[in-house]
Design a protein that fits this description.
Family: Belongs to the amino acid-polyamine-organocation (APC) superfamily. Amino acid transporter (AAT) (TC 2.A.3.1) family.
Number of domains: 1
Keywords: Amino-acid transport, Membrane, Transmembrane, Transmembrane helix, Transport
Strand content: under 5%
Low-confidence stretches: 1-10, 469-481, 486-494
Structural class: mainly alpha
InterPro entries: AA-permease/SLC12A_dom (IPR004841), Amino_acid_permease_CS (IPR004840)
Number of strands: 0
CATH class: Mainly Alpha
Largest sheet: none
Helix content: 55-70%
CATH architecture: Up-down Bundle
Number of helices: 19
Membrane topology: Multi-pass membrane protein
Mean pLDDT: 81
Main location: membrane
Distance between the termini: 34 Å
Amino acid sequence: MAQSQEKPDVEQGGLERKMETRHLTMISLGGVIGTGLFLSSGYTIHQAGPLGAIIAYAIGSLLVYFIMLSLGELSVAMPYAGSFHLYAKRFIGPGTAFTIAVLYWLNWAVALASEFTAAGLLMQRWFPHSPAWIWSAAFIVVVFLLNILSVRLYGESEFWFASIKVFAIIAFIVIGLLAMFGAIPIAGYSHAPMFENFYNDGWLPNGVLPIFSTLLTVVFAFSGTEVVGVAAGETKDPSKAIPKAVHTTVLRLAIFFIGSIAVMAALIPWRKSGVDTSPFVLVFQSIGMPFAGDIMNFVVLTAVLSAANSGLYVCSRMVWSLAQEGMIPRKLAKTNFHGVPVFAVMFSMAGSLLALLSSVVAASTVYLALVAVSGLATLVVWASVSVCHLRFRHQWLAQGHTVGELKYRAPGYPFVPIAAIVMCVGALVLVICDPSQRSTLLYMIPFVALCYTGYYASAAWRAKRHGVQDDAQNALQSVPQDVSQPHREDGQED
């Protein structure tokens, strides 16, 4: 039986397929390239050394590549908006699906709150006497309008936000390479530095262990690439757009991240790298670029707005998807005449503002717990994608299909999803071994248990109220016998 054929411009539930390949690629890039690269990359170099930092980012790039291959196959075969939890519902279970959706929503809601705070602080560089909250409020309004008006407007704005970041990184790499090879003079060197910072103190000055201790930070720096899966349901011709976005995104990320780290490590002695000053600013200042601080402040501000823009988009689509499934009130799935889930957008913005409020009134309790839980959400989502890929391919073949019938098939199956699962589990083990990260599990485990308990308690209550069977059994029966068929969910209004 052929794979599902969706209407070209309309997704089930009222969303519209308005985004093109260029939007999808830049959205994925924009979700990743942010303050983690512009500000925190110096920490990785300082801890792991020049070569160690490159190795850590190379491992992170490989994991992202594996995840994106699996997600590409799933998203082309089943191009649903809010894809992660729908795949989990089909191939793992409804309780797990609900938990994954809540974790992923919380991850972006907390990140969204942090971005609004950062935007206000960044504006104070130019307007030092103005309160940060005024600028934060202004950016909240801008991001809300970009998401509430139309998905096309969101896609276009994110395209240009991401383009600015990409241009800044390319300029950094080109200028840095010229400085490395002596074409541009650089402060502190009377000669071309080349790669001497890599071997002056030994190839791994702090040993091998820091590579693994910083790997967790690197993995989280790559979080956001999976936004391609969330946007699949609003993408024109997903069978062509998604594979192209997957491969171009991963290739560009590897070049941008590893290239930037290599230039930083070559031009800045690893002992001077850290988180106090952006390594981008240090390099630009060392070659005498005027207004280097202001230029990078603008770029980082753009990165913050881009992350906030993507964050609200992802949050709203997760809410919309949960509402479509009947896991939360279905009113949150309603869309306007532009195909935007307005109630889901408003709900997500409200959740983010509550997280922002908690960072002010309960920073050491509520907000700390939210940050801890959201920090591991990416690993959970990535692992679930790999598990779903394994089970999808198994069901596909068991139903008499051939691999050749897939419009896009991930190369290297089953090694790719299995390796990704092992790497995700390995990253979680690093959390346990790292005393500074171990406390996150104290919040994560009870929260996950609460999600499962809440889901099954709610399912039992709905079953009793509406006189229907257990929601878990309902979910299993809602999975088509042929995994190639479109997913539809009929149910009672909550």
